[in-house]
Structures are given as structure tokens and as C-alpha cells.
Amino acid sequence: MNWFYLSLLSALAHANSDALCKKALRESGVLTVALVYQGYCAVFLSPLLAFVGVPELDSTFFFTTLLLVPLEVTALILYQRAIKISPLSLTLPFLSLTPVFLLLTSFLMLGERPDKSGMVGVVLVATGAYLLNVHATREGLLAPFRVILREEGSLLMIIVALIYSITSNLGKVAIQHSSPLFFATTYPATLAIVLFPIAVSNSGLSPLTSRPALFGLIGLFNALNTLAHCHAISLVEVPYMISVKRTSLLIGVFYGWAFFGETHLRERLLGSAVMLLGMTLIVVF
């Protein structure tokens, strides 16, 4: 299976786990679901290590992983908080801001200026964000942007997108200095170990086993997402893989309407599609 189909599989699995996490968050806390997301995933993936084997690991792998883990844990907690308090259709689309942040950090750190396609992409992402709440224009032309500022989940997901602009590249470095399957089978367990004392000190052990079927499905889909993501990203440049994987935001917007009664489906699908197109212009062209 080539990188494109692996990326699509990752997108679908990611969208499914997002919808299941939102369902779980109706009755469970953010830290519990964050731990479930990685812990139950580790239950499925860790046994594969016996077949994968341990490659030769160098100092770059360990240093990169040390940088990755706190960033990933922070992003995961903010991610779950965002989808708990706000509609999927007003949170997931902001993941398309990741390449916009990459343009900004490249300019600030390296002095690299975006080309014409990059600038057009930024405009399209901003236009898509506007279209997500275009119904609010009855309150004024700038009202759709003010809605974003009032929606806590949207703001949290913008922070997550910023973090992901860093971890996407760090993750590829870690994979290059180990192997795709080794990283996929060990990384969720590493995150779960870090999250465990945080979640248990907050709500105890019992919530972690309170909904085994639902939690098991979350872990299964995250396991599929992780395997497909790590394998795809080892086959192609990070921007290409991420641009395909982010189609998950369109699936997530549809799930929000279909399963959670979220409104304004057409404008949010349109806004998400425009943001995705802008993101693709930035990262591919």
C-alpha cells in the first residue's frame, strides 16, 4: 500500500476516533479520555513489538523523543478539551492551520519568505475560517471572526495546530532514527505512561475501565491511525502526508452533523474544504 492510501486510512481512523472520543467525553473527563486514547491504543500495538524487534537507537532518537513527549501530551489534553466543549465542526477545521504556522516559524527562524502559492494558501485558510461561521454576518462583516474568538474549543485547537507544526517534523526524525513500526508500537505506550499519573491523580482508576467497549474502539482506531501514519510518513515528505491526512477534518465535520446534531453543515463543510485547499497549496506547491 503506498503513502497516499495509508494517509487516507490514517485520516478515516483519526476521524472515527475523534467522534468516539467526543461521545466518551459526555460522561468522562478530559484526562481520562486522553489516557484512554493512548493507553488502549498501546494495548493493541505493544504486543507487535515482539515481531517488530528493536532497531539500533542513537542519541538523536532519545533526544527527539524527549522533546516530543511533553509537546504531544499537552496537545492531546488540549485536543480532548476542545472537542469536549465545542462542536467538531468548529474545532477540527483549525488543524489546517498547522502549515500556516510552519510558514511563520520558517520566516522568523530562517528568514524564508513564502512564495505566491503559499500566500494564496494563507488567504484561503483565512477565508475558510470565515466561512465556518458565515451565518453570523447578520451581526456584521467581521462577526464570523469574532465567533472564533468567543469559541474556546476553536482557540484551543489553534494552539494544538501550532504544537503539531513542531511535532510533525520531530516525529519524522524519531522514525528515521528507529523504524516506522518500532515507533508506532512504542510511542503510544510512552505517552500513556506519562499520562497515567496525571489522570489517576485527578479521577482515580475506576473511570479507565468504566466503558470497555467504547474505550476499546477508541484504542483500536487510534492504533490503525498510528500504524498508517508512521508508515506513510516514512515513505514521503511530511507536508504531502499531512495534507492528505487532514481530510479527516471533512469527515469529522460530517460526523458532527450526523451523530451530534451540529448545525450549519453546508457552510462548515465549505469552510473546511476551503481551509483544506489552502493548506494543500501551502504544503504541496
Plain-language structure description:
The structure is a single chain. The protein is mainly alpha-helical and 285 residues long. The chain has one domain. It is 76% helix and 0% strand. It is built from 13 helices and no strands. The chain is globular, with a radius of gyration of 19 Å. The protein starts with a helix and ends with a helix.
Mean pLDDT: 90
Figure out the total of helices: 13
User: How many structural domains in the coordinates?
Assistant: 1
Helix content: over 70%
- Report strand %: under 5%
* Oligomeric state of the chains in view: single chain
The main sheet comes to: none
Secondary-structure content class = mainly alpha
Order of helices and strands: HHHHHHHHHHHHH
Rg (CA only)? 19 Å
**Total strand segments:** 0
